Amino acid sequence: MSNPNFTLLYLFIIISIFTLPVRADEDFNGFVYAGCSQPHYDPGSSYESSVNSILTSLSNAASSTTYTNITSPASTFVCGLFQCRSDLPVSYCDSCIHDAISRLSTLCPLAAGAGVQLRSCFLRYGNDSFLGKPDNNVLYKDCGAPPPNGGYNDAELPGMRDAALGALVAAAAPPSGGAYRIGGAGYVQAMSQCVGDLSANECSNCVGVAVAQLKTECSYASAGQVNEATRRVVSFAFCAFGFKCKLLLFLTFFSLEFSLLNQKEEGPFLKGGKDRKGNIL
């Protein structure tokens, strides 16, 4: 079995006029995307045993922490990690990671390396020594259509967005920077989450690259979701830079009627993976 050279790096960016509360109706385990390596291992092989050992250890760790990385002690090298949103209770992380692991056999059966991104966590394993290595390649983006008029001042929004994203970059910078940061301006709130294996400098660089890429690739586009109970519309831009940092960027407002079609583009590292509907990329 050859090395999969499976590289994934993750980035999200969210804008919201509200804070990011934990809502009972939010699907924190909702599927976002999966990436699978082309090389596969043989059933019953020592590599399969190492993968199963890593996934079991990650599953056990999720009940007590929002980040961990593990390397197989066996002669067949495999490493794995998971990262959950640090602002959520550990119980949410535990549920999300268990869900991610359960999806692997369907999404990436027998893959030598794989990564699964759910809404509040991601999990990755492989034999390509990805731990501690920054990667700012674009993995996935979902910019969507422009938001409908109304609910906010269109002329003010670009400046608010740029200020909120700029606050994220400043907050992630050493020496005060950490893995999880929030910035906001006016209607807009932004959140960033770096993976725990990045240094403060690496996190700051990843967030900076992510912010610049979002502005270039998504401009002021957004996608839409409607909460049927409250008729609350959440508009957002989504960009994925592998599994090293994430930025969430939401603009939230109220509207009675509204429908948008998403425009999506997958980066080269997702070939062989699957999109939100389970279609092979």
Give an overview in words:
The chain is of the alpha+beta class and 281 residues long. The protein has two domains: 31-131 and 266-270, Gnk2 domain, C-X8-C-X2-C motif (Killer Toxin P4, Chain A, 2-Layer Sandwich); 140-265, 2-Layer Sandwich (Killer Toxin P4, Chain A). It contains four helices and 13 strands. The strands form three sheets. The chain has a five-stranded antiparallel beta sheet with strand order 1-4-5-3-2, with helices on one face. Helix 1 (46-61) packs antiparallel against helix 2 (90-107) and helix 3 packs antiparallel against helix 4. It is elongated. The two termini are 23 Å apart. Mean pLDDT is 68; it is low at 2-24, 221-241 and 251-281.
The portion of residues forming beta strands comes to: 15-25%
- The pLDDT mean sits at 68
Helix share bin: 10-25%
Cα-atom Rg, whole angstroms?
19 Å
CATH arch. level architecture of the largest domain: 2-Layer Sandwich
Order of helices and strands: EHEEHEEEHEEHEEEEE
Form type: elongated
What is the distance, rounded to the nearest whole angstrom, between the alpha carbons of the first and last residues? 23 Å
- Low-confidence region ranges: 2-24, 221-241, 251-281
Query: Count of DSSP helices?
Result: 4
The CATH class name of the largest domain reads Alpha Beta
